[in-house]
Amino acid sequence: MADERIPFATHAESTVLGADEIVLNMGPQHPSTHGVLRVKLRLDGEKVIGSECVIGYLHRGVEKIAEHRTYQQFAPYVDRMDYVAAVSNGLGYCEAVEKLLGAEAPPRARVIRVILTELQRIASHLFWLGTHALDIGALTPLFYCLREREEILKIFEKYCGARLTTHAFRIGGLQYEAYDELEKDVERFCQPFDKRVDDYESLLTENRIWVGRTKGIGILTAAEAIDYGASGPVIRASGVKWDIRKAMPYAAYDQYKFEIPTGKNGDTYDRYIVRLEEMRQSRLICLQAIENIPTGPIMGKVGKVLKPPPGEVYHAIEAPKGELGYYIVSDGTTQPYRVRIRPPSLINLEAFDKMIRGHLVADVVAIIGTLDIVLGEVDR
Predict the structure, then answer these.
(1) 294-306 residue pLDDT tens
(2) Which domains does the chain have, with CATH numbers?
(3) What distance in Å separates the CA atoms of residue 25 and residue 22, rounded to the nearest whole number?
(4) N or C: which end of the chain has fewer CB within 10 A?
């Protein structure tokens, strides 16, 4: 029996010749949902006429945990949200607390933060591209993408000893000083990387199977993207030139030149092209940053015991998946009174039902993949 909670069209409007609808569960163990996401699809044959995303299987109460930890103790927890982009999570949280304190990281720390965060953006997009291609049926790009991602993880490991849940920053600056070969390692990765992206394009961009599975699939117009609050590559692929690094610069992004890639059609193919170009732009930012890393301290003037004055702050960064925001309320003690997190994966997922209606079951896999969600961030 159909679930009446799902807001679909009427029976007569939504089926061919009044045929019965089918409700199909995809997930939460399905590999293409990229985590424990349950998608309830209402089908007319193989055509999707509605959907409902059921989340919460990975909920860990991260925001509530924050209220029972000091500001420093909570910092490693955010690394476990988008565990494919842990460095970006840490940057957003540290800068939010710094804004609450009225403190600022030193110039050297801000530049190194940019380098590590842009490397993380490339690593996140590489993992997305490899798994997205695998979902659609292309095996080779996965090996290529993991090959390049491995080089970035080696840099992270040299810096702080971690590869995945990389706790790279501290409130007020950096956790560790940069190791001696950091600039050379970053340059060694970035110099040939542009050709690597060209390799990915040679495999996919004009491949007729890839084009057939992505062009015109999951279209989200600019107006719809804005209405749903989408951000990151999802909204930029719809033609909206919005990037927090440019609109509200943080860290040291105002020092570097880079472009904001956008699409025209807002379909799965455009989101693929936008992410490819974002990797090229991140490469250029890293090359600019390593040319002149300032000398000096890596930690600003913050106390060992943090007691921000009573007040509230919202600070957002441009994470690989979109706008990652932290809303923190201080009551003047060593622990935050409230913490709320705006995860881009959750907000972008809200547009899924709009994107999937009228497409086939096979397209569900492509559209979930093009959103680049991580359930650790969706559920928190």
Answers:
(1) 898 988 888 888 8
(2) 74-379 (1.10.645.10)
(3) 10
(4) N
